[in-house]
Amino acid sequence: MTDAIIAEGLSKTFNGTVKAVDGVSFTVKEGEIYGFLGPNGAGKTTTLSLLTAVLGPTGGRATVDGLDVFRHPHDLKQRIGLVFQESTADQDLTGRENLDLAAALFGVPLRDTPRRVSDLLERLQLADSADRLVKTYSGGMRRRLELAVGIVHSPRVLFLDEPTLGLDPQGRAGFWKIITELRKDTGMTVFLTTHYLDEADGMCDRIAIIDHGKIVATGTPSELKDRVGGDVVTVRPLGNAPGLESALAALPGVHAVTPQDGTLRVKCPSGDVLIPKIVMAATSLGISLVGVSLRRPSLDEVFLEFTGREYREDEGPTATDRAVFLSRMQDARRARR
Amino acid sequence: MNARRWMALTKRELLKLARNPAALGTSLLLPILYLLLFGQGFSFTSFLNGLPPARRTAELNQLVLGAPDYFSYFAAGMVGFVSVTATLFVGANVIFDKLFGTLKRTAATPATATDIFGARLVAGSIQPVGLAFLVLGLAILIGDVGLSGLHVTATVTVVGALEVVLAILLLSLMFASLFLALGFTIEQPQTYFAVVNTINLPVLLTSAALYPWGQMPAWLRSIASYNPVTLAVEVLRINFFGGSLYPYSAAVYLLGLLGWAVSLFAIATFLVRRALAPKT
Predict the structure, then answer these.
(1) For chain B, which residues make up each domain, given as ranges?
(2) pLDDT value for A47
(3) Stretch A128-149: mean pLDDT, rounded?
(4) Host H or E run for residue B133
(5) Are residues A25 and A102 in the same domain?
(6) Is residue A335 within 8 angstroms of chain B, CB to CB?
(7) Do both A131 and A99 map to the same domain?
(8) Among residues A206, A224, A242, which one ends one of the domains?
(9) Of A125, A184, A120, A123, nearest to A337 (Cα)?
């Protein structure tokens, strides 16, 4: 399998001082769904903008589908699809007119355009509203139209910038179902940025975690979770707890104990077995515990592990959103099997 | 420039224009108000009506360059006014397309800066040409309902009519280039309208579009002689009334106008290309 995207030491500094992307290197294989995960301001969109020749680099080089991005930006645009995080379709045109325009701009042969546009409208469930002005579309419909515009010319590499931002769980699951089917049918490579952990976990073959402009970890979702080292038990003692850290570190099966924000994070292979031992150790030291919680490895833990801080919840979906989204993704996976 | 891309983008501009009847209506309303309010009220050449014909003609030649009255002079000048007011929206549309992300979307396709600029330039110049003829037609018609109207006193030949169309087109292309250059360079609509308003009035008032030539101070005449609005309006007046500022043919004024249009086009092309290039 060849590399569809190669980035080597890619850097972007704004106004000579703000390093948005700082020496980023990675490769994306043909046909992969590759996720760039990180909080707002981490450098995700800047990296995507560099790879799509929207921005010029301060340093480094990149090739996409074998083309040098910065030497052949015009040829590159012919081969890639780009879906922005905001709605960019013309609101004063209908969905069909937007697609006709995109087809003309991307050079889809004239004789193929009506069929291609109709097929896409059908596939993205926009056929019934194809001749309505986009300003009357719902958020989900606009997102699907953005996707249709991005793939009207059957690109070899599709770039998605926070493609499901602002969609409800049902809309997000529907969007990803379409992407999964497209990838299966066309074999296109997909590069996406997201700050939804569950999205990256559920959809991506491989993930790069980016923070402060630097990639801090890459791998498949399961590889990244394995690197966290199993379960994490978070112990919250009441007040100061002298000796508790060393007592927990001495427990059999404990890999590491890390203090964080008044808690102790205990890494171990089986947290449920360890919890009674933790409580007993605390009791024997005369330390009261406010709470003990167990977390199975998730990308939240991975993020924490590699960046040293909690993933900012206000930038991600709510717990309910996640639960609904995951349930729908599981349904979609079952359906695929 | 790729013909298919350019045509698709031009169609988009024209569709948007056609779907905005309020903007079209107000573009027409403003010149109509000028014709009905300003033009009627300032028909000051009526005081010459009592003079002997030879004296009256001499006075009119001196004041309004051979036009039969000030309103006729003014109505021809309204074409310059329409070219400015109708084309300024092409630049504003660029700014709104930036704010709504539509321009970003277009720039992410293989469409070149020339395709994008060319489509907006042509679509933006069609409207003022159409409006200019509507205004001229209306100015003639209102003369039949007891108001001051445009009286064409010369015989307009086919070549003359083509010269008139070319003058309006070149002036519109020039202003469309100017406003597109501003639209692609400026980010905020407030800034754009502030700049445009600062340009519009001086450009119009230092031209012979509305100002009676005979009343202009000498220093203003020397500026007005090179003003593109004056050059375009003179092509109309030569063909409508037979008089002119200088003893030049319409072709000379058209040549001057072409120089303006080409210069502004070249500047705008440079600025648009720079604006659409990947940000470094």
Answers:
(1) 3-276
(2) 95
(3) 93
(4) helix B113-141
(5) yes
(6) no
(7) yes
(8) A224
(9) A184
Amino acid at the residue A244 = L
Gap between the Cα atoms of B217 and A63, Å rounded: 65
Helix axes B70-99, B53-64, angle to 10 degrees: 20
Angstroms from B24 CA to nearest CA on chain A: 15
Same domain, A191 and A243: no
- Contact residues, chain A, for B108 at CB < 8 Å: 52, 54, 77, 82, 84
* Residue A190: Cβ within 10 Å count: 25
Could you tell me the strand order of the sheet in which A33-37 lies? A80-83, A157-161, A189-194, A33-37, A206-211, A214-219
Residue from A297, A289, A14 nearest B279 by CA: A14
One-letter amino acid of B247: P
Domain of A171? 3-224
φ/ψ (deg, to 5) at A220: -75, 160
d(CA B101, CA B105): 6
Same domain, A121 and A14: yes
Based on the domain organization, do A89 and A198 belong to the same domain? yes
Residue A315 pLDDT exceeds 50: no
- Number of structural domains (chain A) is 2
Are residues A281 and A190 both part of a single domain?
Answer: no
CA atoms of A190 and A199, how far apart (whole Å): 14
How confident is the prediction for chain B on average, in pLDDT? 89
Confidence of residue A239 (pLDDT cuts 50, 70, 90): confident
Q: What is the mean pLDDT of each run of 10 residues along chain B (280 residues)?
A: 92 91 84 85 73 80 80 89 89 93 92 94 90 91 84 89 94 95 94 93 90 87 93 93 82 96 96 87
Q: Best of A90, A152, A162 to disrupt the B interface by mutation (most B CBs within 10 Å)?
A: A90
Chain B positions touching A104 (Cβ under 8 A) are 4-5, 7-8
Please give the ipTM for the structure prediction.
Answer: 0.84
